[in-house]
Amino acid sequence: MTGGDYRYSTGMAGGRHFPSALIILFTSIFLLTSFNLSAQKNSDIGVFAGTSYYMGDLNSAVHYAMPSFAAGPVYRHNFNARNSLRAHAFYHGLNYSTDGYSGYNDVLPGRLFQPKFVDLGLDFEFNWKPYKTANRKTKASPYVFAGIGYNFFVFSDGNTNLQNHVTLPFGFGYKVNVGRWLSAGLEASARKALSDKVDGVTNPPVADVIVPFGNNDWYFFTGVFVTYKFFKFWDDCPTYD
């Protein structure tokens, strides 16, 4: 394609890939609920709430431009005090406007778009310090994580050129124990979309491509979380210390 080739359309919601997204969603739910009771003593469940925002062809430089609300459940299985596997399902919006960005004003209608998505992910998490949720011996720790995910739209806001896509999530955070049952923390993360149609626009003019974004889109989350420890008995009983 040439630098002047734009692809965009408006109309009713798409959803060509929605069946595949449902398969992934149900697979994720199965993974979240398939741990047996002995494994659940090392697991915790909670909720994340914060903001999401988009960076790509229609916003190549401004972080936190037009942020949207994001929230959803988090499940974490702790292999040991350092390593965990977690899954999440975040409902979120990605807002962007075609008005005011160079190279698009004469091609696309100048209005705000506010599509809604569900972001699914399975991540490996590493604690920089030994940490157990709601454990009296481990107070706090920074952590990093990376994994693989899938993002699908549930409301297109009239943009029928949106595309469901695989993502590469990664990020960092800080968590602390709060009382005998809870853990809380702050987290910031990025999603590298393996698609250039998160916004429904592809192949911008060469002059508008900003390294390292290129043609593929990104989106980001920032927020807080609270998790609850399953079967706190194991940490309270000296036999399991």
Describe this structure in words.
The protein is mainly beta. It has one domain: Porin (Beta Barrel). 10% of the residues lie in helices and 44% in strands. It contains three helices and ten strands. Strands 1-2-3-6-7-8-9-10 form an eight-stranded antiparallel barrel. Strand 2 and strand 3 (83-93) form a beta hairpin. It is elongated, with a radius of gyration of 20 Å. It starts with 17 loop residues before the first helix and ends in a 5-residue tail after the last helix. 32% of the residues are buried. The model is unreliable at 1-19 and 209-213 (pLDDT under 50).
In summary, what is this structure?
The relative contact order is 0.22. The chain has helices at residues 18-33, 37-40, 233-236, and strands at residues 43-55, 68-78, 83-93, 96-97, 112-113, 116-127, 140-155, 165-178, 182-193, 218-229. It is mainly β and 241 residues long.
Measured on Cα atoms, how large is the radius of gyration?
20 Å
Euclidean distance between termini CA atoms: 62 Å
**How many H/I helices?**
3
- At the fold tier of CATH, the topology name is Porin
**Could you spell the SSE succession in H and E letters?**
HHEEEEEEEEEEH
**CATH classification, class level:** Mainly Beta
Low-confidence stretches: 1-19, 209-213
What's the architecture, going by CATH? Beta Barrel
Shape descriptor reads elongated
Strand fraction: 35-45%
* Percent helix range: under 10%
- Structural class assignment: mainly beta
Strand order of the largest sheet: 1-2-3-6-7-8-9-10
Q: Could you give a short account of the major beta sheet? A: 8 strands, antiparallel, barrel
